[in-house]
Amino acid sequence: MLVGEQPGDQEDRQGKPFVGPAGRLLDRALEEAGIDPSEAYVTNAVKHFKFTQAEPRKRRIHKAPNLREMTACGPWLAAELAVVEPELIVVLGATAGKALLGSSFRITQVRGTVLEEEIHGRPERLVPTVHPSSVLRADDREAAYRGLVSDLKVAAQALG
Asked: What is the mean pLDDT of residues 36-43?
């Protein structure tokens, strides 16, 4: 199971997670790490697209969700976890990490490691990594992409 932050502009318009540029990058990174993207359940911690829009016909610009919004969407994420019963959760970015593990979560401290935590009353194994959209915004995209693939290889190993 892959848990991202919130839908982006394209995801919101299509009603599916990770269908935009970050999704294409994520699929490529998963394949390179040895994980079949078609075998992964993909969702977001926050279920609505929070954005700002300078002008009516301009592109909608992502705005980070706050703790209240993450908490409000928690029951949906808990229901997905209960139904999917994932073998492993890949946490994509800080917002997903905070939604699953609490406000003290810091991606820089735990990325690329296997964590064992209780999430919504269930023991879960998690591998935190950066959100694919951060790779697209990075100054050194190649290095950021290699880091994402490296973290996903840890997830692939954890899956056996």
From this structure: 96
Please spell the DSSP secondary structure of 19-73, one letter per residue: -SHHHHHHHHHHHHHT--GGGS-EEESS-S--EE-SSTTSPPEE----HHHHHHH
| Average pLDDT of the chain, as a whole number | 90
Question: Which strand (E) or helix (H) includes residue 107?
Answer: helix 107-110
pLDDT given for residue 72 in this prediction: 72
Are 132 and 29 contacting, i.e. CB atoms less than 8 angstroms apart? Answer: yes
Q: What is the pLDDT of residue 153?
A: 98
Total-model pTM: 0.89
79 token code pair:
């229901």
Q: Which domains does the chain have, with CATH numbers?
A: 2-159 (3.40.470.10)
